[in-house]
From TrEMBL:
PANTHER family: 5'-NUCLEOTIDASE SURE (PTHR30457), PHOSPHATASE, PUTATIVE (AFU_ORTHOLOGUE AFUA_4G01070)-RELATED (PTHR30457:SF0). One of its GO terms (cellular component) is cytosol. Signal peptide: none annotated. Keywords: Hydrolase, Metal-binding. This is Survival protein SurE-like phosphatase/nucleotidase domain-containing protein. GO terms for molecular function: metal ion binding; nucleotidase activity.
């Protein structure tokens, strides 16, 4: 259960590396870095995508080198990388970009919550998961933005970052004392009304999700855009060609996703978040199924393979 110090910081201040999936210029990341730097308690590094990478999950880029460009962020050493969140975390931990490992990796603050099955799609969660795979303590952080507001209030991200400080300091204290658990990382979601949150609750990942559908659309200069993990504008019936580099022939048909239904599960992360609490959910990386499925296939596999062998004789 104890963490190995490895080649981590030997100085007085712990090192925190920040990444995200909304891009290095996103207000969530900038607010988080600002709050961390303002405490004067940490050495802050940033290794984040150079552009929007929402809902890319744990994808990585194999077929080309990645570019890391130095970016000025007050109080931090920062690089913008033309890769995914998992790429950014991996590069930041490699000691090819920075001289040592961080004590903690934070991914966020994401615009939009990441709960339930939506965690599977989340680039934000993947940024923290990648650190977990390399035995570096980590947490993903998301703010449950109300998309009806249309505009992000930067102060909500500042309040969200400040609300995370007790958790951040608690993790770093456990790391220093070598009591931090190695078998999980944390997923933190902050409620919409963060200024009046009801406190902190330990939760578990549920089965909440947005049920997605598809509909055919026309190509035009106005269109939908990805707002967050599995959250999209749905009012428009046309697709923007501004950021689309693919070529559409006259025979092509265009389709876009739209949210058809939202499913929540009582007592789990999404439900508790909607009640106004800050949810703290331990996660792992193994995709294990439940005992009933395991037991079913334990009997099923020998049966069907034996039948196949018998019929081939």
């Amino acid at each position: 259960m104890e963490i190995d110090g490895g080649d981590r910081n030997s100085g007085d201040r712990p090192i925190i590396m920040v990444t995200n999936d909304d891009g290095i210029d996103a207000p969530g990341l900038r607010s988080l870095v600002h709050v961390l730097v303002s405490t004067n308690l940490y050495d802050v590094r940033v290794c984040a995508p150079d552009s929007e990478k929402s809902a890319v999950s744990h994808s990585i880029i194999w077929n080309r080198p990645l570019t890391a460009k130095r970016v000025e962020i007050d109080g931090a050493t920062a690089y913008a990388v033309d890769g995914t969140p998992a790429d950014c975390t991996g590069l930041g931990l490699s000691e090819a970009l920075f001289p040592s490992l961080p004590d903690l990796v934070l991914s966020g603050i994401n615009v939009g919550s990441n709960c339930g099955y939506n965690i599977v799609y989340s680039g934000t969660v993947a940024g923290a998961r990648e650190a977990f795979l390399y035995d570096v303590p980590s947490a993903s952080i998301s703010y449950d933005f109300d998309w009806k507001q249309k505009e992000v209030n930067a102060n909500d991200f500042v309040l969200s970052a400040q609300a995370c400080l007790p958790i951040i300091n608690g993790i770093l204290s456990a790391v220093k004392n070598k009591t931090h658990p190695m078998k999980c990382f944390l997923n933190i979601d902050l409620p919409t009304d963060i200024a009046n949150h009801k406190g902190y609750k330990l939760t578990k990942q549920g089965k909440s999700m947005n049920k997605m559908g598809w509909r055919q659309v026309e190509e035009d200069a106005q269109g939908p855009k990805m707002l967050s993990t599995m959250t999209m504008e749905t009012e428009s019936g046309v697709v923007s060609s501004d950021n689309d580099t693919s070529v559409h022939s006259k025979e092509s048909r265009l389709f876009k996703r739209e949210v058809r239904d939202r499913i929540t599960e009582e007592g789990t992360d999404s439900h508790v978040l909607k009640e106004g609490y800050i949810t703290v959910t331990p996660l792992g990386a193994l995709s294990q199924t439940d005992v009933d499925c395991q037991n079913y296939y334990k009997e099923w596999l020998p049966k069907i393979t034996n039948q196949s062998c018998s019929s081939s004789l």
